[in-house]
Design a protein that fits this description.
It is a single chain. With about 260 residues, the chain is α/β, with parallel strands linked by helices. It has a single domain, classed as Alpha-Beta Barrel (TIM Barrel). It is about 45% helix and about 15% strand. It is built from twelve helices and eight strands. The two termini are about 20 Å apart. The structure holds 2-phosphoglycolic acid (PGA). 2-phosphoglycolic acid (PGA) binds next to strand 8.
C-alpha cells in the first residue's frame, strides 16, 4: 500500500508572528517550482500566536503546497482552563493536524498517556488529525525496554479510537536522545522500531489501520539524512525541529523526500 509521505516542521517555541510569516513565505518560495503532485505533504506547526499570520500567508499564496498544524491543544471545548487553547478555537484556522504527546510536553508539562488519549479522541471528533509522538529515553534504550515502552505509549494513545480514525492519524517516533542533539537514530534501527509500532497498530486495530497510518521519524533530521531515512520500508516521513526553522534546509528535506 502506498502511503503519502509527510514532512512536518515543528517550530517549537520559536518565532513571533512576523518571523513565522516570513518563514512560511520563504518555504513557499523555495517550493514554488515543484509540482504539487510530486511533493510530500508539507506541514508546518508554528506557535499558537503565529497561527493567524501563517494561515493568512498560506491562504494568500493559494498554492496548496503547505498545510498548517498546531503544536498542542486541550481536549475540553471551553471553560475555566487558564492558559489553554481548545480544539474548537483552532477551527479559526485552516488547520489539519495537531501534534500531541511530544516528549517535551511529556517531560516539562507532565503530560500523561491518559491526557494524550483524551486529546487524540477530541481531535478526531472535531475533524482534525493527531500527530501522536512517542519515543524512549536513553536510559530506557540502554535498559532494553524501548519496544515495550513505545508499544505501551501507542496502545494507550489509541484507546477507544476506531480503526478508521486510527488509519487517518499520524504517529511520530522520536527517540528522546536524538531530539535536538544532532545524534540521528540509525535509519535501519528507526525503521525497525517504526515497523514494531505498525505491528502494534495491526494487533490493536487490524490490517487496514496498520497499512494506512503514516509513521514518521523525528530526531535531528537534516537534509543529509532524509534520503536514507525515506529509503526505509516503513518510514513515511519526518517530524523536523531545528532544521525546519530555515526555509532552505526545510525545503532540502522536502526535496529529499521526493527523491
Ligand atoms: P529536532 O527536533 O529535529 O530538532 O531534533 C525534532 C522534534 O522534536 O520534533
Amino acid at each position: 500500500m502506498s502511503r503519502k509521505p509527510i514532512i512536518a516542521g515543528n517550530w517549537k517555541m520559536h518565532n513571533n508572528s512576523a518571523q513565522s510569516a516570513e518563514l512560511a513565505v520563504g518555504i513557499m518560495q523555495e517550493l514554488k517550482n515543484e509540482d504539487k503532485n510530486n511533493l510530500p505533504e508539507v506541514v508546518i506547526a508554528p506557535v499558537f500566536t503565529s497561527l493567524y499570520a501563517v494561515d493568512k500567508e498560506l491562504k494568500n499564496c493559494g498554492c496548496g503546497k503547505v498545510t498548517l498544524a498546531a503544536q498542542n491543544c486541550y481536549y475540553e471545548p471551553k471553560g475555566a482552563f487558564t492558559g489553554e487553547i481548545s480544539i474548537e478555537m483552532l477551527k479559526d484556522f485552516d488547520l489539519k493536524y495537531i501534534i500531541i504527546g511530544h516528549s517535551e510536553r511529556r517531560q516539562y508539562f507532565n503530560e500523561s498517556d491518559e491526557l494524550i488519549n483524551k486529546k487524540a479522541i477530541a481531535i478526531l471528533e472535531n475533524g482534525f488529525l493527531p500527530i501522536v509522538c512517542c519515543g524512549e529515553t536513553l536510559e530506557q534504550r540502554e535498559e532494553g525496554i524501548t519496544d515495550k515502552h513505545i508499544a505501551s505509549q501507542i496502545t494507550k494513545a489509541f484507546e477507544n479510537i476506531s480503526a478508521e480514525d486510527t488509519a487517518k492519524s499520524v504517529i511520530a517516533y522520536e527517540p528522546i536522545w536524538a531530539i535536538g542533539t544532532g545524534k540521528t537514530c540509525d535509519s535501519v534501527e528507526a525503521n525497525r522500531v517504526i515497523k514494531m509500532i505498525r505491528e502494534t497498530i495491526r494487533g490493536l486495530k487490524g490490517d487496514m489501520a496498520a497499512d494506512s497510518i503514516r509513521i514518521l521519524y523525528g530526531g535531528s533530521v537534516k537534509p543529509e539524512t532524509i534520503e536514507e531515512q525515506m529509503a526505509q520500508s516503513d518510514i513515511d516521513g519526518a517530524l523536523v525541529g531545528g532544521a525546519s526553522l530555515k526555509a532552505d534546509s526545510f525545503a532540502k528535506i522536502v526535496r529529499g523526500a521526493m527523491a
